[in-house]
Structure formats: C-alpha cells, structure tokens
Amino acid sequence: MQHLSWPIFRVTEKAALAAWPEVGCGDKNIIDGLAVSAMREELNTLPMQGKIVIGEGEIDCAPMLYIGEEVGNGQEIAIDIAVDPIEGTRMAAMGQSNALAVIAFAPRDTLFHAPDMYMKKLVVCHQAKGCIDIKLSLSENLNRIAQALNKPLSSLRMVTLDKPRLKKDIEEALHLGVKVFAFADGDVAASILTCQRNNEFDLMYTIGGAPEGVITACAVKAMNGDMQAELIDYCQAKGDSENGRKIAQSEYQRCQEMNVKINHCYELDELVKSDQILFSATGVTSGDLLRGISQNEHTITTQTLVINGIERTTNIISSQHYR
C-alpha cells in the first residue's frame, strides 16, 4: 500500500486538471465525464489490482467509474477503491466553491460495498469518539456530543448540507441553540474539517451519497475521528412518490444482492475494516478545505490533501505545472 501514497495524489490531481477548464460550463455531466476519463487513465497505470467497490454516477445517470470495475495494471497488491471523480459536480458546473476530486484506497475486502444510494452520516472529532448513536434522534446526539466535549449546546458547531431533505434537522439543531453551518454541497470536505485537530466544527451530520460516505469513512478513520452511517432508500431521502417507490424497490433488491442492509447502523470499523488507508483530494474550485486550481501566464497551480493512514500523516501538496 505504501508505494501507492504518491501515485494516489497524481490520480486526483489529473482528474481535477481535466475537469477544471470546463468549470462554469453549466453541464455537470461534462465536468464528471472529463474527470472520470482522466482518473480511469491514471488508475490503469498504477501497479495494483484495483477494484471499484463503491463509485459515483448511478443516482443521476452521470458518467462513472462503475462498481465492480477493475483498474490498475494487474501487478502488486489487490486494492479496494472508493471514488467520486468530482465531489460537487453541480458546484463545478456553476463555478461555485468546494468542488473536489476525491479517492480512497484500502486493502482488498476492507471497504464497505454498497449501491450508489442515499446515506445518513454522522461524524465527530476524536474528542467525541464513542459517544454517537445514529439510531437516536439528532437532538439526543447533539446533547451527547456537547457533554463529551464539555461544551454548552450554544457553543456546539454542526456542519451539514443546505438541502430540502435536511430542513427539519437544521431547524431541530437551531432550536437547541446549536450553531449550524450549511454547505451547498461537499460532505467529504465538511467531515475532514470536523476531524482536523484544529477543527472548525464539532460534528458533521447529513444525508448524502453513499460513495462520499465510504470515502469520508476512510479519511475519518485515518484521522482518528468517529463515524456512523445508515443507508436509506430514495423515498426516505427525497419524499414519497410513484417514481421514488420504484427507485426504492430497486435499491432494496440491490442491497439484498450485495448483502447490505437499509436502515441499519454501520459503525466506522464496518465501513472501513483496515487502518492501511490512503486518501487523496484535489481542489477544483476553492473552498473551505483546499484552494482550487489557478493559473497565470506561465503556470497552473493545484493543491492536494493526502491522508496516509499507514504513516498517520496528513500532507497538503501544492504543485506548479509549467505551461
């Protein structure tokens, strides 16, 4: 695994660089397609037997590195891969902040294998490790976290996503006096910010994509944070409708085939069974976690975060690409 710590950085960097010229184009599938192609090409040069165990694309019919796809040159060790070529395709398409290219590696058969569907996620920093229970109400969890951190609820800082499906949760937290920071998109970045030692937030709570959830779990585990997650069907996330019921029925069938459960609490050690984790994220547009790609007359500059669970290190790599 350790020999992939530099190559993984190049994977997200290449994906971000490929997508960046189309930032602001208005079409998220163009952005995603460019990143997917570049990421796949780079992955196939790596000395590994890689397998995509959870990927992006099925929910919105976007281009994808699909679940079960094998990548790498077939040499060296077998690797599980969780991937989101662009987390925040809509943001990148609209020229907004916080778009990232993200990927995580772990040894074979150690990453949670699930369909691309909605997932409820609760993340806390290392100081609150062991106090969360996603089956309890959000209010109960907020009280538990505040007690673990020895803070009043009025000083607790929760980061979430600004989505209609989270409106009631945001209102519940605000009613308790908790400070809420709602990102347009980007729960991977929000979770990392929560787990950093000089963390801006005390917890991250959201309902978002399962691929981002597994990628998040890799970063959280490597940073010694804590996380629980629960797969939920389309109707639970988006509201009941005829089309939603059809999607939910398909999700239940796929979960049965993949031997995973909907509405079941998955602990961090079930989402990621190994400490030998490599995580990489490259900024496409500037945000709270990383600077986006920029250029001048002679150079293009990228910034990448690499989290190495093997060495227990976090590195920010700024690169200049000469034109």
Automatic annotation (TrEMBL):
It comes from the Bacteria. Mn(2+) 2 binds at D84, E87, E212. GO terms for biological process: fructose 1,6-bisphosphate metabolic process; gluconeogenesis; glycerol metabolic process. Pfam families: FBPase_glpX. GO terms for cellular component: cytosol. Mn(2+) 1 binds at D32, E56. Its cofactor is Mn(2+). It catalyses: beta-D-fructose 1,6-bisphosphate + H2O = beta-D-fructose 6-phosphate + phosphate. Keywords: Carbohydrate metabolism, Hydrolase, Manganese, Metal-binding. One of its GO terms (molecular function) is manganese ion binding. Substrate binds at E87, G88, T89, Y118, K163, P164, R165, D185, G186, D187, G209. Belongs to the FBPase class 2 family. This is Fructose-1,6-bisphosphatase. It comes from Providencia burhodogranariea DSM 19968.
